[in-house]
Amino acid sequence: MKYISTRGQVTPIGFIDMFLMGLGEDGGLIVPETIPSVTAEQLNAWSKLTYQDLMLEVFSLFTNDEIPEPDLRKLIQDSYAGFTSPAVLPLTTLNDSLHVLELFHGPTFAFKDVALQFMGNLYAYVAQKQNKVINILGATSGDTGASAISSVRGKEGIQICILHPNGKVSRVQELQMTTVQDDNVLNLSVNGNFDDCQQIIKELFADIPFKTKYHLRAINSINFVRILAQSVYYFYAYLQLPEKVRADGVNFSIPTGNFGNIFSGYLAKKMGVPIKQLVLATNENNILERFISEGVYKPEGFRSTHSPSMDIQIASNFERYLYYFCGEDAGEVSARMEKFKAEGQLIFTPEEIARIQQDMTAYSVGNAECLNTIQTYQERYGYLLDPHSACGIAAYEGAGNKNDGAFVSLATAHPAKFDEAIRLIGIEQNFPERIQELFDKPQRQVVVDNAKAEIAAQLESFYRVTN
After folding, report:
1. Where in the sequence numbering do the catalytic residues fall?
2. Where are the extended beta strands (E) located within 312-425?
3. Integer CA distances (angstroms), 378 to 217, 299, 374, 381, 395, in order
4. Cα–Cα distance for residue pair 457/177, rounded to 1 Å
5. With contact defined as beta carbons under 8 Å apart, do 416 and 172 qualify?
6. What would the pLDDT profile of 249-274 be if each residue is shown by its tens digit?
7. Coil, strand, or helix at residue 186?
8. 89-120, pLDDT tens digit by residue?
9. Do residues 105 and 83 lie in contact, with contact meaning Cβ atoms separated by under 8 Å?
């Protein structure tokens, strides 16, 4: 297994080198040279595995034995030891056709823990084995930052800087990041939105001399290891369904802002999980819904919503999907991305729109519908959804073909992380102890302008501490 760039200018590399590279040095995203196939027989043989053992099987298809099996097994076991559910990701059945995969039982109560706890341990492993300095740089719309910081705080040989949009994440998300006092953590609160943060991250990673000098490593979903780790729970959800239910395949409704969560499902489908519908759920920042429904990929005015982790206009993982949509033609991808950079939009033909809609459907959820879905499901099932998970359920209700078999909707965060929205509909909830205690802790963050030079200066000062 070798890894290449969507833009074709990266010499094929192995698993560890891919992990360390993060963003392709040609500005593209890293993808596997070939996608391994899993047969129906293999899937059936995996049906009784624990989540950890299933992840070991899936990752072993991609790692080229660069990580010895006992080491990989231990990395996986350690990564999920802190999850509060014995199943790691429990599947809850709400009715005959709808199941909810709870992805929020990790240390920061968000689905990002599923990938980032593993990635933090893998970075520590590589740092120790190769005697490397690991300086992690990432941007967050809320959950990635908290989870990434949790995964590496206090670990020797690793420093992490996370950019988040000032005032545009939930209070709990902010506190989970900024109350961490470990000296290997720097939080930069950027006067801008998530897209501004993400753009600066991409520019810094594209600055090869800067990236090399400061040993920059990626933990955002630009890193393919994160995509791969997320793909495992599509296998797991399918295999947790009763055999007679999954016999006809499964459908997924997926809250997504950066296209990473749904691309992970697309990858699982290409590997062999019998997924019929991939329903993309988004909020009022609906660039991805318009791309799928109308064939127009164009950022429009930013809107703050009750689901801030999806308040994103430019979706990093769109380019990975574009690569496969273009028949793995790196030249075509490069041309289209240059066109997007120059013109600020991509327009797809009617024939291309039909092809896109064979891969996925989409549904945009407004603020009122989001809150109404939370209230309805609390009253109907006694099940409390966070606003992002509610977008997934609303998309299942609004765009899912319920006559096409079982649906799994992804619950991406614990509702306590977004109490501001929950309180708007008069629902009071008890916070988990690990969240409640955040409100009494002092914060540590640096507020910066949306300026690459200012942020680069902060990084130079921070990373110089141990380099």
Report:
1. 112
2. 346-347, 361-364, 407-411
3. 41, 34, 6, 6, 17
4. 21
5. yes
6. 999 999 998 899 999 999 999 999 99
7. strand
8. 999 999 989 999 999 999 999 999 999 999 99
9. yes
